[in-house]
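Write out this protein's structure.
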Amino acid sequence: MKQRTYLICVVLVAIGLILALGYGLTSANMIIPVIAVVVGIGILALCRRSVTEVTEDELSTVLHGKAALSALEVTILVTAIGFAVLMIFSFTGGTGSTLSRCENGSILVVYGVLTAPPDPEFLYKNTYLIPDPANLTIDDIVALDDLFAEGHRIRDTTRAFGAALGVVTVLLTALYGAFLWYYNRRYGT
């Protein structure tokens, strides 16, 4: 395989990974991107082994190093910004609930999750009518639990994804620092 064919293989694997990540995020199935990454690594390893041309010299090694460092810097910057935006979104705004007694003795429970001021809007709003508050059934309790749980999930998903981006940012920065320290000690720069 020629070097150009290998680069086409890299581009196709990258496109496949982007599509798998997009599908995994939209279907809330993160197993798909994980499998796609493993398969992509395998495909790239097989393609790399079958390249017959000379692929490395001093210039290409320096260029690969600069490209890797630039990619790392951009990745750290993007994940740090994503972390900040998602954390701000997940901790701003508020929640509210009301209980209203109806004329027939039933109670209307309203629960909502609001965006941040100055113009708060509902991200989530739902109601449940308890027909006989004196004789709550298990169905009433389950429905009330679902009412509040769905509202909390609105913020929990963004908070979890933001926290994951924060962890990735810290890990990438720590790995970069550790490898920089190692290579500086090893090669005495």
